[in-house]
Structures are given as C-alpha cells and as structure tokens.
Amino acid sequence: MRPILMKGHERPLTFLRYNRDGDLLFSCAKDHTPNVWFADNGDRLGTYSGHNGAVWSCDVSRDSTRLITGSADQTAKLWDVQTGAELFTFRFDAPARSVEFAIGDGLAVITTDNFMGNVPTAQVKRIADDPDDQSEESLLVISGIKGRINRAVWGPLNRTIITAGEDATIRIWDTETGTCLNESDKEQGHQKTITSLSKSADWSHFLTGSLDKSAKLWDTRTLTLIKTYVTERPVNAVDISPLLDHVVIGGGQDAMNVTMTDRRAGKFEAKFFHKILQEEIGGVKGHFGPINALAFNPDGRSFSSGGEDGYVRLHHFDSDYFNIKI
Amino acid sequence: MAVEVATQKIRWGELEEDDEGDLDFLLPPRVVSGPDENGFKKVVEYRFDDKGNKVKVTRTFRVRKIARARLSKSAIERRSWPKFGDAVQEDVGARLTMVSTEEIVLERPRAPGSKAEEPSASGDPLASKSGAVLMVCRTCGKKGDHWTSKCPYKDLAPQTEAFVDRPPTADGSGPPGGAVKGAYVPPSMRSGAVDRVGHDMRRRNDENSVRVTNLSEDTREPDLLELFRTFGPVSRVYVAVDQKTGASRGFGFVNFVHREDAEKAISKLNGYGYDNLILRVEWATPRPN
C-alpha cells in the first residue's frame, strides 16, 4: 500500500477520530488547531481554530454535525463540523483531556487533569440540540481517582463510564450515581500508565494500551481480562478492527529519547495482532517518531496513524491484507 | 467512488509555457480515452516544444480506487462542502497531502504460512547470524579473526590439547571415536588409527621459533626473511595478516633451523629499529590452552 501523508499539523499528533460514515477523519495535535480530512484521498476539508493550547482528543457526533474537542487551554469546545464555527466553550480549571459523546449525542463526558492541586475528574455534560441553550453545568462529576485520567468512554446504553489513566487501573462508573462499580484486577491489569482505550464496534469489549509495553482486551460488562498482546515498545495508541479479528497497536520509545538512538531502535511501526490468537500479523512502518494515535476506518478497509513527527499517515489496505492467514 | 490520482489542476511548471506566444489554437484538441477495465486512461495532448516543434504527448494514467466506500447520502453531500478555516487559502503548492513515494508493506514477522517458531529453541540461532562472534579459533582461542583451520598458530599448538575446547561430550569421557553421534572425527582420531606422527613434527616446529612484534604494517614475509636470513637458515616466516582488511596485524613468526641462530637473532634484533618502529623479538611461547 502507498500511504497518504497528511502534514496539516506543526506539532505531534495526539488523537485521530473517524466519523461514523468513515468519510471524514478528524485529527488533533499539540498545535492548537484540529483538522478534518476526507478519509479517502486525504484532502483537507477544514480546520477548527479557537483553542489556545494542545488539543488532546475529540469526538464527532453520530450525524457528523458536531465536534467536541478537549484542550490543554482548560476548555472543551463544541464545533460545527461543516463550517468550523465554534458553538460553545466549556471552561474548566484544569486541562481537558478526553472527550466523548454518549449514544444519542445528548451527553458528553469530559475529563480534566490533575493540575495545580485539582483532582482529576470526569464530568458529564448535557449537549443541547440548539447551541444557544447549551449550559456549562455538569450533570455528574466523577472524582476519586489518583492519577490523570487519560481516557473516559461511555459503556453500553450510557449506563456506565469507563475510565483509564495514570494509575494503571480501569474503572467502571455508574452514570446515575457516580459510584465505582468495578475495578480492574491489579495483578492481571496494566502495570504502568494506560495511554489509550478503544472500544470494539459493538462495544462488548475494549482494548487498552499501556506504557508497560502491552495492550489488553477487556470485557466491557464484567471487566474481565480476555487477551493480552505483548509488544516490545510502550504503547501509546490502540484500535480494534471493525472488520477482521485484528487489533493494531502503536507506540514507540519515549519521545524524549528518539534522537538518541537509531530509528529502527524506536519501534515506530504500527503492529497488527490477531485479536483472538494474540499472534503478531505484521507491522507497518513509516513514522519517524512514536505513534500517538491510531484509528481504523469504520469500514475496516483503511486505517490512519498519527505520530510524534506531526504526520498523519492514511493507509488503504491492499487486497492481500484481507486474505492473511495465520 | 473513484478518485483520480492524477489531478486536473494546472501546475506552475505547465503554466510557464504560455509566454511563448499563443500558438496553442493551432494544435489538435486533447483526446482522453478510457479508463478501460484495467483502470488505464490515456490522454493525448499536443504542444510546442522549445524549438517550436509540434510534439505529441501521450500520457497513460492508472485510475485506481483508493477506497471502496459505499457512501451514505450525507457523506456524498459532505463531499461538496466548501473548505473552511485554514484549508481555504491552501493552494496546490502547499502539498499538505501527498501520496507516499514509498511502497509500504505489512511486514510479516515470518514467512506467511510458516509456523511460529519458539525463539532460542534450537540452540543459539542469534549467534549464527553474527558470524564474527561464532568464529572462534579452537587453537588460539581468538574470536572473530580466523577459523581454526586457518589459525597462524596451529603449528605451534600441541595437537593433543587442541580438542580441549570441544563440547564435553566429545571431551574427556571415553575415546573420541566413540559415542558422539554425528560429530565429525578426523581419520587420525578415529579408533584404530595409527599413532600420530604429526606430534613430533609440531614439536620440532615449535622450537627455534621466534616471535617478532611491533612490525610496521608494510612489513611482509619477504622483508622479514630478508632481515632474519643473515643469522642463519630460516625454515619458515609468517606474518599475521588481518583476514578482512588484508593489512598486517603487526606481528610474525620466524623459525630457524638452528637454535643458536635464533638466539643470535633475538639478541641482535630485539630493540632494533626497523621501518621507524622498534622491533621486539623473543622466543615464541607455545600457547597454553
């Protein structure tokens, strides 16, 4: 395959997100402007300027009209996908890290970092249909986690919120009461910071990547460990193929050490594993720095990776990818 | 939906042709044929070259589907959305989006179809890759320089002790010709072989051997022979040469027929200035194993 290189960001990528139809790709980076690209040919459709800090994550509504972004400028913003207009700003007293719309797009969960004495929180906001009615009020504030929450996502039917972060523990919270329902096993679970979390297409299981050089597959309901994928690099990004029983894992050595070693020593490939057999299928090279973001197209026929090198690489799989035998 | 890889936009390189005068109307029109079932599209154009000659340019494009997308209605609508933000001013020259010139393959960790092999199952497969480490001379114990058969000291080493380094199965337990299956046993070592004669020969070689060190790199065996011949008949001259670079390694051996000559040579030549270096000449000590 010949990947399409998209150089729309000046700084390292932080997050990639496809819309549900898979025709748009949203990219966030440490520069202040998220971009949106056509996911087939990589043409840039537009940019969303207004943030004043690194943008850590984003999510797009199911009908691809709204975009929500969380940024280190202590805000989360709602955008009109088509025009790039800023619709609303949620202000916090700490950097916003992870954002996600709930099913139905009526709610969103936004996490804030532990910063200047603040405790990390995951906050649920109501998203109004009309931006004029939008309020900043939080319906629920989840707190009581020690380390930074790197990822907070909704569970099935919006009943739960799953958080994962620096304390290497995955927790499932009740969205009604805000109580912790379940916690990942310390022995089985990750040993170091969890950097990424990605749900399967049907939300029945999810994959977490951690700096302990492994990725783990968990059952969403019971939080039991299903599979472990061991790599030789710290994992920054993971995703589950919606089409095949594949998972993709990306990462690389710590960004601060990249210039000190050979490029090959950095392990900057995106590694594909068989989801069930846990066997490595292959690696896709190309980035000059660690991979910070990975996303499968919802049709499973392409994936994109974003690296510390500021590039988004959009890969359309060759036909032989679909016939790989283990 | 198909997306043509070749863009229709005019590049700056093509614009330059315009100041040549407007003769373009004289040219036949552009003909586009295809794309055919293999995705090949042919474009035939006519233009004037630098000398004013009419040139027919036939370009063949391969149109390929980049994404097999069954697009929803809203996705098709989104296709025609106007660009916004920084994307508006973006010109063709910006080249934010490029197709990689490099073909990237999904690199399989092993050949497709082959079974997963337990690493380090068969002894030490990693070591065999780095031949330099594996190349250990059994005679002198030097690593990565030469094979045992090419050892410069092999004549000096007592034959009986040369096998000490072999794995323990072939070693002390039992006669060498015995139980070890598959291991090569030289004919002279096989049970029933006649007593070795080589032993004596090596002993003789061992004696009257003089080691010369601190030789300059240019010194070759003839030079050394030239130098030592004055003391008496010389049976053998050897200069150690690096296998890879071919350069002298700076030492050599000279064997004299008579021990007195060797003694004389050592007393005269030790500390002798030769080729701007000071030689060190001494008795060669057989290498203890």
TrEMBL record, chain A:
<keyword id="KW-0648">Protein biosynthesis</keyword>
<dbReference type="InterPro" id="IPR020472">
    <property type="entry name" value="WD40_PAC1"/>
</dbReference>
<dbReference type="InterPro" id="IPR019775">
    <property type="entry name" value="WD40_repeat_CS"/>
</dbReference>
<keyword id="KW-0677">Repeat</keyword>
<dbReference type="GO" id="GO:0002183">
    <property type="term" value="P:cytoplasmic translational initiation"/>
</dbReference>
<keyword id="KW-0853">WD repeat</keyword>
<dbReference type="GO" id="GO:0003723">
    <property type="term" value="F:RNA binding"/>
</dbReference>
<protein>
    <recommendedName>
        <fullName>Eukaryotic translation initiation factor 3 subunit I</fullName>
    </recommendedName>
</protein>
<dbReference type="GO" id="GO:0071541">
    <property type="term" value="C:eukaryotic translation initiation factor 3 complex, eIF3m"/>
</dbReference>
<dbReference type="InterPro" id="IPR027525">
    <property type="entry name" value="eIF3i"/>
</dbReference>
<comment type="function">
    <text>Component of the eukaryotic translation initiation factor 3 (eIF-3) complex, which is involved in protein synthesis of a specialized repertoire of mRNAs and, together with other initiation factors, stimulates binding of mRNA and methionyl-tRNAi to the 40S ribosome. The eIF-3 complex specifically targets and initiates translation of a subset of mRNAs involved in cell proliferation.</text>
</comment>
<dbReference type="GO" id="GO:0033290">
    <property type="term" value="C:eukaryotic 48S preinitiation complex"/>
</dbReference>
<dbReference type="GO" id="GO:0003743">
    <property type="term" value="F:translation initiation factor activity"/>
</dbReference>
<comment type="similarity">
    <text>Belongs to the eIF-3 subunit I family.</text>
</comment>
<keyword id="KW-0963">Cytoplasm</keyword>
<keyword id="KW-0396">Initiation factor</keyword>
<dbReference type="GO" id="GO:0016282">
    <property type="term" value="C:eukaryotic 43S preinitiation complex"/>
</dbReference>
<comment type="subunit">
    <text>Component of the eukaryotic translation initiation factor 3 (eIF-3) complex.</text>
</comment>
<feature type="repeat" description="WD">
    <location>
        <begin position="6"/>
        <end position="47"/>
    </location>
</feature>
<feature type="repeat" description="WD">
    <location>
        <begin position="142"/>
        <end position="183"/>
    </location>
</feature>
<dbReference type="InterPro" id="IPR036322">
    <property type="entry name" value="WD40_repeat_dom_sf"/>
</dbReference>
<dbReference type="GO" id="GO:0001732">
    <property type="term" value="P:formation of cytoplasmic translation initiation complex"/>
</dbReference>
From TrEMBL, chain B:
<comment type="function">
    <text>RNA-binding component of the eukaryotic translation initiation factor 3 (eIF-3) complex, which is involved in protein synthesis of a specialized repertoire of mRNAs and, together with other initiation factors, stimulates binding of mRNA and methionyl-tRNAi to the 40S ribosome. The eIF-3 complex specifically targets and initiates translation of a subset of mRNAs involved in cell proliferation. This subunit can bind 18S rRNA.</text>
</comment>
<dbReference type="InterPro" id="IPR035979">
    <property type="entry name" value="RBD_domain_sf"/>
</dbReference>
<dbReference type="InterPro" id="IPR024675">
    <property type="entry name" value="eIF3g_N"/>
</dbReference>
<dbReference type="Pfam" id="PF12353">
    <property type="entry name" value="eIF3g"/>
</dbReference>
<dbReference type="GO" id="GO:0001732">
    <property type="term" value="P:formation of cytoplasmic translation initiation complex"/>
</dbReference>
<dbReference type="InterPro" id="IPR012677">
    <property type="entry name" value="Nucleotide-bd_a/b_plait_sf"/>
</dbReference>
<dbReference type="GO" id="GO:0003723">
    <property type="term" value="F:RNA binding"/>
</dbReference>
<feature type="region of interest" description="Disordered">
    <location>
        <begin position="166"/>
        <end position="193"/>
    </location>
</feature>
<dbReference type="GO" id="GO:0033290">
    <property type="term" value="C:eukaryotic 48S preinitiation complex"/>
</dbReference>
<comment type="similarity">
    <text>Belongs to the eIF-3 subunit G family.</text>
</comment>
<feature type="domain" description="RRM">
    <location>
        <begin position="208"/>
        <end position="286"/>
    </location>
</feature>
<dbReference type="InterPro" id="IPR034240">
    <property type="entry name" value="eIF3G_RRM"/>
</dbReference>
<keyword id="KW-0648">Protein biosynthesis</keyword>
<keyword id="KW-0963">Cytoplasm</keyword>
<dbReference type="InterPro" id="IPR000504">
    <property type="entry name" value="RRM_dom"/>
</dbReference>
<dbReference type="GO" id="GO:0005852">
    <property type="term" value="C:eukaryotic translation initiation factor 3 complex"/>
</dbReference>
<keyword id="KW-0694">RNA-binding</keyword>
<comment type="subunit">
    <text>Component of the eukaryotic translation initiation factor 3 (eIF-3) complex.</text>
</comment>
<dbReference type="GO" id="GO:0003743">
    <property type="term" value="F:translation initiation factor activity"/>
</dbReference>
<keyword id="KW-0396">Initiation factor</keyword>
<dbReference type="Pfam" id="PF00076">
    <property type="entry name" value="RRM_1"/>
</dbReference>
<feature type="region of interest" description="Disordered">
    <location>
        <begin position="107"/>
        <end position="127"/>
    </location>
</feature>
